[in-house]
Amino acid sequence: MADIFTVNDIIQQIADNFADCVATTIGQNADDATQAIREQLWCGLSGDGKRISPNYDNDPYFDEKILPSGKKNFWYKRGKAYKEWKMRITPPSTSNFINLPPRAANIPNLFIDGTFYESITATVEGDTLRTEAHSAAAPDILDKFGPSVIALAPQSIEWFNQKRIRPALDDLLKSCGW
């Protein structure tokens, strides 16, 4: 059994390395965070943990005869047809990586050709995970649906903590002699 001084030294070593361990783990697994965000979107989930909104049944886009660009809106008064088209090109499914349930038929997934999804990145700056999207459509998507669509949802944070952070902290505790 360790004496109180040894336990104190172990606890101090854990405390000294805890923040670095978490930051390093997040940095080493930023690609997993990116993948989690893409899967959230695929399942119609925003970074606030709620369904992406507006949905196809209440999106004012389908009431715009003329788009801000001045072009005629092909989907004007055709929200139902758009929803059916989206069901064909991106049918709802469970996510493979973090195991989120499929989205409902009326919930957007912000996927047309994959360009927006592929432009999403997660990087670490200091102790902060920064998420961005760089596609040409990203500013319009973020304006319409909010910047939280490219943030980690609580479900993804829980997955990340359990699958990446916790094992790293377990390793830290062992390496410190705990």
Q: Would you write up a description of this structure?
A:
The protein is 47% helix and 7% strand. The protein has 178 residues and is mostly helical. A two-stranded antiparallel sheet has the order 1-2. The model has no long low-confidence stretch (mean pLDDT 94).
Task: Present the secondary structure layout.
Elements: H1 4-28, H2 30-42, H3 79-89, H4 115-119, E1 120-125, E2 128-133, H5 138-145, H6 154-175
Helix pairs in contact: 1-6
**Number of helical regions:** 6
Calculate Rg over CA atoms: 21 Å
Low-confidence stretches: none
Biggest sheet, strands in spatial order? Answer: 1-2
Give the termini separation: 12 Å
Helix content: 40-55%
Q: What descriptors fit this protein?
A:
178 residues, elongated, mainly alpha, two-stranded antiparallel sheet, 6 helices, 7% strand
What would a concise description of this structure say?
The chain has 178 residues and is mostly helical.
